[in-house]
Structures are given as structure tokens and as C-alpha cells.
Amino acid sequence: MPGGASADPIDKRVQALAAAVRASIESRGVDPARVYLAGRGGAAATVFYTMSRLPDAFAAAIAIGGSPEAALATGRVYAVNLANAPLLWVSANDADEAIAKKLKDAGMWLEWRLASGMKNGDVFAWLAAHAREPFPLGVDCETDSPSFASCFWLQPDKFDTGERNDVLPRTLVAAATPASLDFGAFGYRPDDPGPGVLVSHLPEKYSGPLKLGDRIMELDGHPIADAHEFQLIMSKATEAAHAAVMVQRAKQRIRLETRILVPRHDFLPTARVQGKYDPDQKQILVISRGVSSMRMTVPEAWAGASLFWNGLTIQQIDRPGCVLLSIDKELLHARACL
Predict the structure, then answer these.
(1) Where residue 255 sits, what CATH number does that domain have?
(2) Model confidence pLDDT, tens digit, residues 61-89
(3) How far is the C-alpha of 298 from the C-alpha of 323, rounded, in Å?
(4) Quick one: CA dihedral 132, 146, 275, 316, positive or negative?
(5) Strand arrangement, sheet containing 87-91
(6) Same domain (yes/no): 106, 238
(7) Which of 32, 98, 122, 192 has the most CB atoms less than 10 A away?
């Protein structure tokens, strides 16, 4: 649990977490192959988000309860970033299996289990079965920020959206629940058992009609059993519309007029790198999009391999270590890092 207030921007907290991991490895001798990420309840979405932002930092991750929806709604969860590190999602809702299948079909290394079939020992056994490989034969990462551009043995450091490559499409996983009620940024636990949806968080200086402890009981006359059903209702909303909400406040029932909002996402341009080492052909194959410079770390076992970048033969890599790949006036270059 790194330092930082819960009100800090999510990326700042993820960076604090990455710094805590590095410090533990460097100062306390923590095994970098055995660092795991875990979150429960409302923190489950942060597990999905962090694994997308730091695709090569953890051996595996586990999310207990909660939902990935809040992470997907950020527009910064890329399927390929969760392809090399497994994530176990343990939930209490049978319906979550459909969400998990969608994420798996998108390319994530995701396992879903029903909480009723899991014991504490099962959780630790699952985590212990996974170790981080620093040089996997195949890597693939996508990012919208140079601050989160680490991909195992490939480290992009300069971006250029003009460097297009249709071979590498976007792998963004869209939010399954894009709609919201026009009450301001109220918070609730995705695993809240009900009845209704308990308003558990309101931002500072909130000026909307809700109060902490309110329960949203009905939407347009339809009773809401729990937070999971509320998310399902929101997931089916495709157009903005007026809505009437019944709120339970202590012993009072209050009717509120509002709107269902379906936000329009303006997604940021991204960069993507893909690398593969072929031990039979002794070749390193690199494909990139939106990247003009990157550092490639070559282990001793790969020394002597031929390097191909975006389909072109660059050179033979005679020695292990860091190689700087760059594009200058449409020419590709490779040289030892300074």
C-alpha cells in the first residue's frame, strides 16, 4: 500500500505503487519474479487499471469482488497489456462471468472464479503458481502516455503519432457501463448487496441533490435490487434521456428528476510495441506504431541474433545489453545505449 491520499489522481497513485515496488526490490531484496498485486471490493477496478498501466511490473494479480467497469470507463485499459501477466477475478455474481468472458475474448490473460468455490489457500496457491519472466519470448504493450511505456525488454521513450502502422490496431477495451445518472460524481460499491444502491462517497464541495447514506431504490418505477442490477440497467442505456429516481433517505422517500447521460469518449492517440524472439531462427522481430525511439534490452542468450524492425533488417546484435532503436528521416537505426 504505497503512500498518497485516496483523492490523488489514479495515475499518481499507480506511479507511487510502481515506486514502492522498485524500492522494495532495490532496498529490501524482494524477488522481482514474485511481486503480486491484489485488491478487494472497490479496489478491484484499480487492479485492472494498474495492470494495464504497469504491464511488466507484477508476476500476477488478483481482484476479489468489485468490478472492472470503473477501470474500463477511464478509456485506458488495453487488452494486450494484460496478456503476459495473469489476473484472477473472484466475484460473488454469476453474471460477472459474461464480463470476464468479454475481457478474455479481447486478449486478456484473465481467469474468473465464483467466490463460493474459493478458499484463502486457493488464492495463495494460484498466486504462487505464477512467476514473472523478465524476457518472455513475445511481448506486446499499448499506452497513451510516455510515463507508462515499459514493456519488459522494450522501453519506448519517444512517441510520434505520425509513425503509423496498421498492423498494430488499438486494443482498448471499451466500458460496458458508459451511462450514468446526472447527479454529479457520486460513488458506490459495485458489490453493494442492496437493497438499492448506497451512496457511499461524494466529492468535496458536492452540490448535487444526493447525500451520503442515500439509497437509490427505483429508476423510472423499476425497483433496483442491488448495485449489480443498477450497473446492468446503466449498461443497456444507449441514449440520453430524462429519468425519475426514488431515493430512500433515512425514513423518507424522495423523488428526484434527473437525466441518464451517455458520455462521448474522445480517446487519446496511443503507441504500441510488439516484440518476439525466435530461438530457432535466432531472430528478434520488433513492430511498432507511434514510436520514434525505444530501448531494447538483449539478454546474453539472444546475443548474435538478427534484428528486424517493422519488416526491415537492421543489423546483427553481437553483444547483450541495451540497444537504442530510433527513426530519423524515415531511416531506422540501432546502436548501443549511452
Answers:
(1) 2.30.42.10
(2) 999 998 898 898 888 999 999 999 899 99
(3) 7
(4) negative
(5) 36-40, 60-64, 87-91, 110-114
(6) no
(7) 192
Range of the domain at 142: 137-172+265-338
Q: What is the mean pLDDT of residues 273-299?
A: 97
Per-residue model confidence (pLDDT) at position 190: 82
Residues across the chain: 338
- Listed residues 219, 244, 261: the one ending a domain: 261
| Same domain, residue pair 96 and 126 | yes
Q: Report the Cα 283 to chain-centroid distance in Å.
A: 31
Whether 253 has a pLDDT exceeding 90, the answer reads yes
Q: Is residue 185 located within the same domain as residue 332?
A: no
Asked if 299 and 219 sit in the same domain, the reply is no
Beta bridge pairs of residue 304: none
| 250 in the same domain as 121 | no
Residue 3 pLDDT class (50, 70, 90 cuts):
low
Q: What pLDDT, on the 0 to 100 scale, is given for residue 233?
A: 86
pLDDT of 7 higher than 60: no
Domains identified in the chain, total number: 3
Examine the domain organization and report whether 164 and 193 are in the same domain. Answer: no
CATH of residue 116: 3.40.50.1820
pLDDT confidence band for 144 (50 / 70 / 90): very high
Sole residue written with cell 442490477: 229
Q: Answer yes or no: is pLDDT of 4 > 60.
A: no
> Are 36 and 166 found together in one domain?
no
Amino acid residing at 37: L
Helix segments in the chain, DSSP class H: 10-28, 44-53, 69-72, 96-106, 120-128, 227-235
The pLDDT value given to residue 42? 82
Categorise residue 85: left if φ over 0, alpha if ψ from -120 to 50, beta otherwise.
beta
For the chain, helix, strand, coil in percent to 5 are 25, 35, 40
